[in-house]
Amino acid sequence: MKLISWNVNGLRAVINKDAFSWLSEYKPDFLALQEIKASEDKIPAQIYNLGFENISVNSAKRAGYSGVMSLSNLKSTNLKSQFFDDDEGRVLEHRFDNIHLFNIYFPNGQQGDERLAYKMDFYDKFLAYIKALVGDGKGVIFCGDVNTAHREIDLKNPKANSKTSGFLPCEREWIDRVLDAGFIDTFRFINGDKKDAYSWWSYRFNSRAKNVGWRIDYFFISSNLKDKLKDAFILDGIEGSDHAPVGIEIDL
């Protein structure tokens, strides 16, 4: 089974760029989109012709902001956030068999102390929620734009960004706690300490062409799914957004 996640930074914008033409080559069973920036009644009609059986949307109450969408060929129960008051359209949870699969656009903390506190509260409540699921014997997969680079290897200029949200000690320490709880960063598990592997680049300073980026988009799995993981990758040749799609292959 192939699962792919992509922060599109505006669904209507990428549709206009024909940015889903790669789907015919990669054929994901599940496609998680973040930052769709569209209410359900403004989803472009082309999305419903991409060949997926099921489409779920969680839009923000604020127009043109945030929002997540999942497109899949899985038969699942689809829920919005069960752990956080989510009026920003950040969470979709998909339950099938004994698996809980999350598509999440995690908050950005760069707008100041209040938003950083919001981000950390979201982080903490989500981790408590998925730890409880694993404690109940569930398999957990979560993907999306986590908005934090974990290690120095995960961004081009770690020292210059050491005081920037997205690479603050408290944010990085949360990922440490995710790993300590038994979850696996699938890209690092498969690819080890591969360098210059990024999923986001600023639109400024020709950053993508120079590969001055950050790895902030992830797939994590619970350790009880480790033996089912076959591959993890970044599709950094796919354009249309400031993020690249990331994905895994897993036997489910």
Molecular structure report:
With 252 residues, the chain is of the alpha+beta class. The protein has one domain: Deoxyribonuclease I, Chain A (4-Layer Sandwich), CATH 3.60.10.10. Helices cover 22% and strands 27% of the residues. It has six helices and 14 strands. It has helices at 11-16, 23-26, 113-135, 169-180, 186-191, 207-210; strands at 2-7, 30-34, 54-58, 68-72, 77-79, 91-96, 99-105, 139-145, 183-185, 200-201, 213-214, 217-222, 229-234, 246-250. The chain has a six-stranded mixed β-sheet with strand order 3-4-2-1-14-13. A six-stranded mixed β-sheet has the order 5-6-7-8-12-9. A two-stranded antiparallel ribbon has the order 10-11. α3 links the parallel β7 (99-105) and β8 (139-145). The chain is globular, with a radius of gyration of 17 Å. The relative contact order is 0.16. The model has no long low-confidence stretch (mean pLDDT 97). Pfam families: Exo_endo_phos (PF03372). It comes from Campylobacter porcelli. Belongs to the DNA repair enzymes AP/ExoA family.
Topology at a glance:
Elements: E1 2-7, H1 11-16, H2 23-26, E2 30-34, E3 54-58, E4 68-72, E5 77-79, E6 91-96, E7 99-105, H3 113-135, E8 139-145, H4 169-180, E9 183-185, H5 186-191, E10 200-201, H6 207-210, E11 213-214, E12 217-222, E13 229-234, E14 246-250
Helix pairs in contact: 3-4
Pfam family, one: Exo_endo_phos
Domain Endonuclease/exonuclease/phosphatase: 4-243
Cofactor: Mg(2+)
Q: What are its keywords?
A:
252 residues, alpha+beta, Deoxyribonuclease I, Chain A, 6-stranded mixed β-sheet, 6 helices
